[in-house]
Write a structure and sequence with these properties.
The structure holds 2 protein chains of 2 kinds. Chain A has 13 helices and 21 strands. Chain A is an alpha/beta fold. In chain A, helix 1 runs parallel beside helix 8 and helix 3 packs across helix 6. By secondary structure, chain B is of the alpha+beta class. Chain B has 3 domains: 108 residues, RNA polymerase II/Efflux pump adaptor protein, barrel-sandwich hybrid domain (OB fold (Dihydrolipoamide Acetyltransferase, E2P)), CATH 2.40.50; 133 residues, no CATH class; 206 residues, 2-Layer Sandwich (Chloramphenicol Acetyltransferase), CATH 3.30.559. The longest helix of chain B has 25 residues. Classes of the chains: A alpha/beta, B alpha+beta. Chains A and B meet through loops of A and helix 5 and helix 8 of B.
């Protein structure tokens, strides 16, 4: 029996951030995860490996783009084994780094699966080499943080026992480059992985049930991405559902069902491979959870207050398992808040903006209030947009397919939300997040000197647009 | 078409109440102005008359529910039911079946009895003391509510900080934290400002994940400023920002906290001291405080914390008065009253207030003014099974003792039968509490703020008095006068009490001076 002040269940970006801070604050801390090192879905089979592959995909598409500038690299030859190794090395470097930090911080790391015995006891079934090693370790804890994350959600009709039907984890393994790939789900996971395969040479079809890609993002931003996707992918089927998938020798036969108004809706088609990326569900089925007062809502999220406490006084929960948005950076922040609360600080999880980034090409990013949400809430806002066609930097990149937009409070000029689409949008959004968190106004953005020539200027010039005075945009005076 | 009847505005200061009884049932034919609910508000029990007529279709509240103004009470079928009589007859069999799930759903959706937002609402509307503004309130129920926990949590959290030498202005910090600064906007916003003190092992707040999009735009303050405000126990949404677009700076938060401390210092009772787990020493039972008890607790805590009390004791020789009283007791009884010491004391106090106007006053600290009242309304503390109620006799100076006796008997009866209205308990200038019926010698009554003085009367007894070289038996009445030392000096206190005692000894004084 180990006795510890804090045990963190799940070593994803939320869990390990919490454990590390706890250790820094002097709490004895244990961290439990089935993987050999901290990292979780994000580092092992999510954000990180997908970004390594997307980097390569962008390079391929840029090399093709270069033809137009008089530089021809020829068709790329892809060594899939080597690409896989690059991606695996990226993961290995990061996870061995986090493993190192565990040791330096003297966090007790237990590779295994946790089971709750009671509100102060955890049982860990130890895992080694990817399987249960038979050993069991009990942990007595003062506080626990549940950071068990989420898993891909696969609806029953899409559950096909065939390796050619993949979830995101399988797709990241790059088993081969299929001639044809169907991506079920037009959300960020489907679009990101779909564009990797498209860049590597697959004919990718995306099928999405709703009327648009990336539900939740503002349409004017998505439209810019959709135009590009229409070129890089074979087709995008909106308002369309997959009703059946039949494995056959030559591929997976997929039956579609479209809304009546969809033109040229395919009835069925055979694909070499299918990637199911329709969403993720919280991983709240923790054995023994019912022995505590922890409550789970109808959607499977563990219920917490703004300090990330569950209904069980000794147990906190953070990250994907407590609610949307299921994002690593949200989880890390929550993890740190929970630990600070434990340390007696009167703090709460109260962000003004949680940035969302889609690492497609072009990237799409937003933070704070979206235009769509403002309309839904009937909140009066002013939108200021700066199209990248007017950005010197975008023109030098030959990538004017971008848009920067600010959602502002018309009375106070305060920045409530930022939306971006274009190459590098994921990096640009950080300034917007800071501005929103700081309560910055359009005047603040306008008066902050931005470096030239960079894409960051588009944020400053959007603010100028708000006042009708953008240097590079002419707007006739409204009377 | 079913029409909903919602809880109407019942009075200026009533925002909610507890349902004591529902006076109609589904299927009843309801007439306009017919009472449908018996509602217990802070002090009065009110019968709520219907503003709609028709056949009652569904009752949406039940006894014990807390209902707010505007909340649906019941629905009636109007017109349609009368038109088609066959259908109307069929309705009762159908209605109960339909009504069951609806009622259940309603009960489930009902706010918890001690839901903080509601409490806040009730408080903010019913009293206007500084204590209200600072959100001071007693523990209401077994489950430590997040809001209340915050009051407690703010303190230790900040203390730790200042021990580490990080916090400057730790003083305001403490006081602001202790007073549990709160405001209307903050109380309404979901999920804002709820802290639970983990180091004390307080109960977790049962609260679902907060939706990301708040109703109002969030306060324009940087994360560091928001965090500081929270540590100070200040609701960031209440802090006026001095920057562009109303942006809130660290300085704004500090200034706001300082102001609150100023206000709270005069109002706030001590911080909530966490309770030990009593069940460790034996069996316990927890019961929710009823509205009257809660209100009394709040009101007296605020009065005790605000008013610098002095209590002065004296005795009145009522030997002669008591003989007179006995002589006229039947006459008064015939008039429908009881000629009690209390009734006579009302008359005496009414005269005393005319003579000593500083006892018929209130203090407005904010304005730096004393408010003198030109009318004389006297509150009488009545012990009821619901708790302490204080009905008020209006214009007591213009009534004779017989009239006062009758009115007092009438009001006491109403208070005990829960028939007293809120208006009948408002507007008092001075209170009298007579515990003599039970016993005791002297006590120290708490001034019923914003009044400035209260007279306590205990049991009269025969005592030896040294008179002309001899001990003679005299019937002595113990008097205890508590007053607000901010407006009444000690010399005035004893002058007033002496006059009261002499007037009781010498009823002629009433005619002479009163």
């Amino acid at each position: 029996m180990i006795s510890t002040q804090l045990v963190v269940v799940g070593a994803g970006p939320g869990g390990y951030a919490a454990a590390f801070l706890a250790a820094d604050l002097g709490l004895t801390t244990a961290l439990v995860d089935p993987n050999p090192n901290p990292g979780g879905v994000c580092v092992y089979v999510g954000c990180i490996p997908s970004k390594a592959l997307l980097h390569v995909a962008n390079l391929i598409s840029e090399s093709r783009h270069a033809k137009g500038w008089g530089v021809d690299f020829g068709e790329p030859k892809v060594d899939l084994a080597k690409l896989r190794e690059f991606k695996n090395n990226v993961v290995k470097r990061l996870t061995s780094g986090t493993g190192q930090l565990v040791k330096l911080r003297k966090v007790q790391y237990l590779q295994g699966l946790a089971e709750i015995v009671d509100a102060h006891t955890l049982r860990v079934r130890l895992v080694a080499g990817g399987r249960e090693a038979g050993g069991v370790q009990d942990i007595q804890f003062e506080h626990a943080i549940l950071a068990t994350g989420s898993v891909p959600a696969i609806p029953p009709m899409l559950q096909v026992d065939d390796p050619r039907v993949m979830d995101s984890t399988a797709a990241l393994d790059l088993p081969d480059i299929p001639k044809s790939l169907l991506v079920v789900g037009g959300g960020y996971i489907g679009l990101e992985l779909g564009s990797v395969y498209a860049a590597l040479g697959s004919a990718v079809t995306v099928v999405e049930m709703t009327p648009g890609l990336l539900p939740g993002a503002d349409r004017d931003l998505v439209d810019v991405l959709a135009k590009r996707v229409a070129q890089t992918m074979k087709s995008v089927l909106l308002n369309t559902k997959v009703t059946q998938m039949e494995p056959e020798s030559k591929g997976i036969r997929v039956t579609f069902e479209s809304e009546p108004h969809v033109d040229n809706a395919p009835k069925e088609h055979v694909f070499d491979r299918v990637l199911v990326a329709v969403g993720r569900r919280p991983n709240s089925k923790i054995p023994g959870l019912e022995k505590t007062q922890v409550q789970v809502d109808q959607r499977g999220f563990i219920m917490v207050d703004e300090q990330r406490r569950t209904h069980e006084p000794s147990i906190f929960a953070i990250g994907d398992v407590v609610g949307e948005p299921m994002l690593a950076h949200k989880a890390s922040h929550e993890g740190r808040v929970a630990v600070e609360v434990m340390a007696g600080e009167n703090v709460a999880f109260a962000p003004r903006a949680i940035p969302a980034v889609v690492f497609t090409d072009p990237e799409l990013a937003w933070a704070g209030l979206t235009e769509a949400q403002a309309a839904k809430d009937n909140r009066k806002v002013t939108i200021a947009k700066f199209p990248w066609g007017a950005s010197g930097r975008a023109i030098t990149l030959d990538r004017t397919d971008g848009l920067t937009k600010l959602v502002l409070d018309p009375d106070t000029e305060r920045l409530l939300g930022v939306g971006l689409v274009g190459p590098g949008a994921g990096e640009l959004i950080a300034e917007g997040v800071l501005a929103i968190e700081m309560g910055a106004t359009a005047t603040d953005l306008k008066l902050t000197i931005h470096p030239h020539p960079t894409l960051t200027e588009t944020l400053m010039e959007s603010a100028e647009v708000f006042f009708g005075q953008a240097t590079h945009v002419y707007r006739p005076k409204r009377t | 078409m079913p029409t909903d009847f919602t809880l109407p505005e019942l009075g200026e200061n009533i925002a909610a109440g507890d349902v004591l009884r529902v006076l109609v049932k589904p299927g009843d034919t309801l007439a306009k102005d017919q009472p449908v609910l018996e509602l217990e508000t802070d002090k009065a029990t009110i019968e709520v008359p219907s503003s709609v007529a028709g056949k009652v279709k569904e009752i949406k509240v039940k006894a014990g529910d807390k209902v707010k103004v505007g909340q649906a009470i019941l629905s009636v079928d109007d017109g349609a039911a009368e038109g088609a009589s066959t259908q109307a007859e069929g309705a009762p069999t159908q209605a109960p079946a339909k009504e069951e799930p609806a009622t259940a759903a309603n009960t489930a959706a009902k706010v918890p009895a001690d839901e903080p937002g509601l409490e806040q609402h009730v408080e903010g509307n019913t009293r206007d003391t500084a204590a209200d503004k600072s959100g001071v309130k007693p523990q209401t129920n077994q489950n430590a509510e997040p809001d209340e926990d915050r009051d407690r949590a703010a303190l230790p959290a900040k203390n730790e900080r200042s021990e580490r030498g990080e916090g400057d202005g730790a003083d305001h910090v403490r006081a602001a934290g202790a007073s549990g600064v709160n405001n209307d906007r903050g109380a309404g916003a979901p999920g804002v400002n709820k802290v639970v003190d983990i180091s004390r092992g307080a109960r977790a707040s049962a609260e679902p994940a907060v939706p990301e999009a708040p109703e109002e735009p969030p306060a324009p303050a940087a994360p560091s400023v928001r965090r500081m405000a929270r540590e100070l126990g200040v609701d960031i949404n209440a802090v006026p920002g001095s920057g562009p677009g109303g942006r809130i700076s660290i300085e704004d938060v500090k200034a706001y906290a300082k102001r609150l401390v100023g206000a709270a210092r005069s109002a706030a009772p001590g911080s909530h001291v966490p309770l030990p787990d009593f069940s460790r020493w034996g069996e316990i039972e927890r019961q929710p405080m009823r509205a009257v008890r809660r209100k009394t607790a709040e009101h007296l805590s605020a009065a005790w914390a605000t008013v610098p009390h002095v209590t002065q004791f004296d005795d009145a020789d009522i030997t002669a008065l008591d003989e007179l009283r006995k002589k006229y007791v039947n006459e008064v009884e015939a008039a429908g009253g009881n000629l009690t010491v209390t009734a006579i004391a009302v008359k005496v106090i009414a005269a005393a207030l005319r003579r000593y106007p500083q006892f018929n006053a209130s203090i407005d600290m904010d304005a730096g003014e004393i408010i003198y009242k030109k009318y004389v309304n006297i509150g009488i503390a009545v012990d009821t099974d619901r708790g302490l109620l204080v009905p008020v006799i209006r214009n007591a100076d213009q009534k004779n003792i017989v009239q006062l006796s009758v009115e007092l008997a009438h009001l006491s009866e109403k208070a005990r039968n829960r028939k007293i209205s809120l208006e009948e308990m408002q507007g008092g200038c001075f209170s009298i509490s007579n515990l003599g019926g039970i016993g005791g010698t002297y006590f120290t009554p708490i001034v019923n703020a914003p009044e400035v003085a209260i007279l306590g009367i205990s049991r009269a007894s025969m005592r030896p008095k040294f008179d002309n070289g001899d001990f003679v038996p005299r019937f002595m009445l113990p008097l205890s006068l508590s007053y607000d030392h901010r407006v009444i000096d000690g010399a005035d206190g004893i002058r007033f009490l002496r006059w009261v005692a002499e007037a009781l000894e010498q009823p002629f004084l009433l005619a002479l001076h009163g």
